[in-house]
Every structure is written in C-alpha cells, then in structure tokens.
Amino acid sequence: MHFNSSIFLPFILSLKNSVVDSMAGRDRIKNLFFLLLGAVFVSGMFFLSKFIVIKILSIDIIGEIVAKRVLSMLLMTIFFMVFLSATITSLTSFYVADDLNIILSMPIGFESIFYSRFTNSLINSSWMPFGFVLPVIYGFASAIGSEASIYFLTVLILLFFLVIPVALSSIFITIIVRLFPATRIKEILIIIGITAFSLLYIWFRLFEPERFLNPDGLSTMIEFVVKFDVPGSILIPSTWATELIFDGIKNKPVNLSLLFALISTSVALVLIASIFIERFYLDAYSRTNEGKKRGYIKSLLTQKIIDLVPAPHLYRVILTKDILEFIRQPSQWSQLILLLALLVVYIYNFKYFKNIELTGLISQWGLYFLNMGLCGLVIASLGARFVYPAISLEQRSFYLYKAAPVMMRNFVFSKFLIYAIPITLSSVIVTVISNLILQSSVEYFIISSSMSFIIGLVVSGLGISIGAIYPNFKSNDPASIPASAGGVIYMISSISAVVLLILLTVWPTAFLRFPSYATSKGNQFYIIIGLHILGIVAITLFSTIYMLNYATRRLEKYE
C-alpha cells in the first residue's frame, strides 16, 4: 500500500488553525507580546553564549580547545536528553495514544502510520533542545566571526543529528514493549530511567572535569592542553556534529565525509526503525493493550492517606483524582524518573563548582547567581512537564466541573495548591542541598532558600494560569501538551520571571559582597534594596493571585 500523506492533515490543519486563531480577535495583541517575549529570550541566549565564548577564547593557548570541548559536551548532553525524552514520547505515540484504535482501523499502510507517529515523537521530544541549542551555537559563530553560511548549515546539521536519537528510541521502546507484558511496563521504565542515568553519569565521569579545576595537578601547560583536547570517538554522532559545526564556525571547508556519515546514518536509522517496528508492531501493540490489572488496593490506600490531609473536601477530591491519574499513566510518571535523574546530576555537579570557587575564578556571590539560575531552569522544566498540563489533562471531565455546583475559582486555586506544594518543596530542597555542598554563608543560605521558595510559587502560578488560558482538552497525549504554543509561552514567561527575580536580588546580595560600598551609599542603598524587594513581591503576587484570577475568568467563559 502506497504512502498516504493525508494522515498528516490533522496535525497540519491544527497547527494552521492555531496560528490563524492566535492572530485574530482580542488575543492578537497578547500573542504578539508573547512572540516579542520569545524573541527577547532567544536574543538573551544568543548574547549570553557570545559573551561566554568571547571570555573562553581570551584564554591563551587553550581557549579554542575549551570552546570546542564545551560545544562537544553540549551536543552530547542534548543527544542523551532527546533520547530519553523520545523514549517516553515514542511509547505514547506508537503504543499508548487513544487515537491509535481509529488510525489502525483505517485503510492506511503502516509506512504512513509510522512516519506520522515518528514525526510526532520527533517534534515533541526535540523542539525544546533545538530551540535552546540553536541560539547558543549562533552565539559561538558570532563570537568567532563566522560566515553567513554557517547559520543555515547549523540548522541542517542539527535536524539530521536530532533524528538519530529519536530513531534509536523508537526501536528501543519497541523491543521493550515486545519482550515484556503491559503489566510490567512501569517496572521496565524505572529500570530504563536508572540505566539511562547510570550511562549519563559514566559519560560525565569520563570527562573528569575536576582535573581542570586543579591546574597544579598537571605538571606542564602542554599536558593540560593534551588532557583537555581528548578527541571524542569518531563513531559518536555528536562528534560528527561538533566537528562539522566547529569547522563551519572557523570558516573551514565542510568535511563531506562527516556530513555524509551524519545524513546517511540518520536516514538509515529511520528506515531500519520503519522496517523493524512494522515487523513487530501488531504484537507489541496488542501486548501494550492486553488486560491490565486494576490497582483497587492501591487506590483505596491512596484515598485513606489523602483523607488525612487537613484541607477542604474539594481539594482532597481533586488531589485524589490527580494522584490516581498520574499513577495510571506511564507517560506521566516515567517523565518524573527522567527529571529526578537530571536533578541528581545537577546537585552532584555542585561539588565541582565549589572547586571553582577555591581556584579564585568565581566568588561566592557569583556562585549564588549560578546556583539560583540553574535551580530556576530546573524548576521551570518541572513546571513545563507537570504543572502546565494540569488543566488540559482534565479533558472532558472539565465540563463536569462547569456543570457541577463548584466555583471555578476554587477549582483553579485547588489545582495551584496541589502542584505548588511539591514544586516549591523540590525547589527549596535542591537549593538547600546545593548550598550545603557549596558551604555557603548563612546570609546566602537564607536569601537563596527564600528565593527558591518564591520561584516555586511563581513557576506553579504561571503554570496553572497559562495552562488555563491556553487549555487543550482534546489532547490524547500528555507529553505533547507542553509542546503547544501555550507551552512555549509558559516556558518563556516562567524563565523570564525567574531571571527577573534573580536580578532583583543583585542589590541585596551586593551588601554581602561589597559591604564597604553599601555602607558608603547610606540610606540610598537601603531605599534601592527596598524597591528591589517590592519588585520581588509584585512579581510573586502578579504570577499567583492576579494570574490565577485572570485564568479563572477565562475558564468561566470557556465553551
């Protein structure tokens, strides 16, 4: 049966309607504002990358080597992240999505089904890494003074590069589903998460980053350079991409053999995945959807525990439903395993940041901003995966809330409390542990812990609010909800809010870094600190109280 491109029409028409609707009516100005906000965010990533690369290149002898290694580590990390994310989205797209029963019953060849599902998995798992790494690489190119052709070449290289981990993940998840019954998928994905984290940790340790934080341990500068410039394996796709991009940045001729290897590998893996999945798909799909045991005992135990929560009845009802729904959806809790692994890596890396401080390359003031910035990005990522989809995951049951004698305001604020508590708690725990590792002073400890609490509230408030403003009650794939236009708006808004909150602590923390300067300014300094604190309070109230009330009004008018 020939390839049927009509299977892509629902996705294309949905995208077209979203764009047309966003540019029409009263939402036009608001969406243009968020589009401008996105442009500011991308520009910020570009200029920050350019600034860092310029600083790296200013290091004599090893500057260019360090820049290349940073690019290599970045692409390798992106490769792992996309593979892990695509493993989850492939499970949903190929085997768990609710619309598969309809699609498989249609007179459409499997080739068409495969490419539509593969494209869906590719977009959902790689749009965010692509949007992050592209302005970073452009910052590299601008700092070095590259030719204009590298900007087009980078897009081409990244597209083929990101196809490889997605193709591998689709083959991998098919093997897992084919070999193990559906009732064991939860345990299997836990093993996958632990294995993936172990591989990521082993890869990270192979770089031995601590050796670069203690130059005295190297006898000569030549030894330092040789150890730093350890070439990546020529068999690893990230090595091909690094060499191609860096050669382009340096205005060198394109290595056609590496370009051919990258393109041919990505195309070959997609074809292999198509043949392999077609061979085992029906059996794997039937195994995924065979009789699943109902967790009545677990549900009863969960209900008894939640009944002990001192909260209004509506809050406990929604909490019970959300927890049970979360447990029963592998595509949801499996993402939690991935994010927890990333949190462990994030916390573990702070032992090396402490060594950086000891070398004198960065002060405790600088470590404070580094810690808060990274913590904010991690919490914003958690919000994108779990908080933002919370309203949309209600799907058709949302209309039951509208028909029931339940105030929409209570529904929205209950959702906020349910997600704000774990998100804020995670933010504070991560910050406290990182501060203990960094051996921060009491003052920095208190300020950073307080700010992490505020960041958790802001991220949760924006997640529930923007998720309610841009609901998608028709989505059958929870993993695809953050990839929508509203998800992009949420990520930009939450990261921008985190950056503003951190910047508003510059003056309060400057008192700790430059006490004599602060004292010389007298009352003027304290007035500025007061204004900064008012700014923090204003952002917090806007992101929670105001935005939640606005979201409530939008849901009340939703038809």
Q: What is the typical, i.e. mean, pLDDT?
A: 76
Give the low-pLDDT segments.
217-232, 294-298
Query: Could you give the order of the helices and strands?
Result: HHHHHHHHHHHHHHHHHHHHHH
What structural category arises from helix and sheet content? mainly alpha
The major β-sheet equals: none
C-alpha Rg (nearest Å): 25 Å
Number of strands: 0
How large is the share of residues in beta strands?
A: under 5%
What percent of residues adopt helix (DSSP H or I)? over 70%
Q: Which shape, going by the Cα principal axes?
A: globular
Compute the number of structural domains.
Answer: 2
Counting DSSP H or I runs of 4 or more residues, the number of helices is 22
Distance between the termini: 41 Å
Give the arrangement of secondary structure elements.
Layout: H1 9-22, H2 27-57, H3 63-96, H4 100-104, H5 110-144, H6 149-179, H7 185-206, H8 221-228, H9 237-249, H10 256-288, H11 296-307, H12 313-328, H13 330-348, H14 350-359, H15 364-387, H16 397-403, H17 408-438, H18 442-469, H19 485-503, H20 506-513, H21 515-521, H22 523-557
Helix pairs in contact: 2-5, 2-19, 3-5, 3-6, 3-9, 3-13, 5-6, 6-9, 6-10, 7-13, 9-10, 11-12, 12-17, 13-15, 15-17, 15-18, 15-19, 17-18, 17-22, 18-19, 18-22, 20-21
Characterise the protein shown here.
The chain has 559 residues and is mainly alpha-helical. The chain folds into two domains: 286 residues, no CATH class; 211 residues, no CATH class. 79% of the residues lie in helices and 0% in strands. α11 packs antiparallel against α12. The radius of gyration is 25 Å and the shape is globular. About 4% of the residues have low confidence.
